[in-house]
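Quick question: what would this complex look like in 3D?
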Amino acid sequence: MKIPVGVPDFDEDEVQQAVKVIRSGWVARGEELEQFEQRLAEFIGVKYVVTVNSGTAALEVALRALEIEGKEVITTTTSCAPTANGIIHSGNKPVMVDISREDYNFDVEQIEQHITPNTAAILPVHIYGRPANMERIMAIAQKHRLPVIEDCAQSLGAKFQGKMTGSFGEVGCFSLNINKVITTGEGGFIATNNLTIAEKARIIRNYGREVSRSDYCYTMLGHNFKFTNLQAAIGLAQLNKIDRLIAARRSNAAYLTSLLNDVPGMQLPSEGKGEFSIFFSYPILLQQPGIRDQLKEFLEQQGIEVRTLFRPMCDQPYYQKLMGKSQQQGSKSQQQGGKSKQQYPQAEYVGENGFYVGCYPSLTKEQLEYIAESIKEGLQFVGRAPLKP
Ligand SMILES: Cc1ncc(COP(=O)(O)O)c(C=O)c1O
């Protein structure tokens, strides 16, 4: 049996919507794009959505639309590189905070100690589809008068205390790439209640020019971050079934948990009080260090695709170099270069001992049972004999 870590959920509706747009000739801009932005805004519960061509672009656009430049932005060290890249591309420096081992999100207790006079924003990531504690994060942000930009690339539809991720902060940044809850192949968007931010975002994505003006007037430094009408058509078909897609992910996760609950030595994904996760994936943390890679190899030999949980970003060569450089510039909070073992013990442990398997809607009961059985078998196997002679 072959079980990939992610499979998009496309059917005839996506095909029909895409064909309709191709036949109309309006593949770049058009009605579907406007409708898609409006429907996303309604779904998230914000006034404005501005689509862009990736989640990475959304992060850069959000910071630039907020006019944050040359500052420090506090984020978590357990994320995908684009989180830090969005901060760097906007001309800012990421300042990384360790995570909580329980939910892999910000260790909220540690945020304040990283705030300096140069801090301009807090950027939580709702990782693996589980919402960060937005009540605590918003309270810290309000106390220090800092805007919050949420990285919701993996959390479209996740809620904290009944409110959608991406609607707490000044801006929410989302991805629509292939393994996300809904996908348009590639793509992303920002969500905000702030009209000025939405307008600036529209200018930045369009070479720095206001589309509504016919006099070709460039008011900002822009990119071509445009999302297409063809993508929007596919996105609309995806959005029509988002509730079902999320329900299926949640039910798959619940089934896997019921099958694995009695296996000792593993931390399974869970939901804290007031949290509604969309189970972007099914992350597992092994309590016995040093066996993850062998277990991963075993599962892959059974045909189950497995991904390791994110290594701390500050362990990655590029960010080590960058932070080493900023260390010389002397900011207390940036003295992180090459020190993750001491400074980020939780992120380090998770990066070395965590892995995830897929949790996507089309997984069958039989496949989920096969995944659970293989994990159990693999756990028995590891530590007993090396996999390869
Ligand atoms: C947490 C996180 N942030 C940002 C991104 C960037 O999104 P994109 O791939 O659309 O640029 C990703 C991408 O997968 C992600 O997982």
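Answer marked as accepted. The pocket of pyridoxal-5'-phosphate is lined by residues 54-56, 79-80, 82-83, 125, 151, 153-154, 175, 177, 188 (CB under 6 Å).
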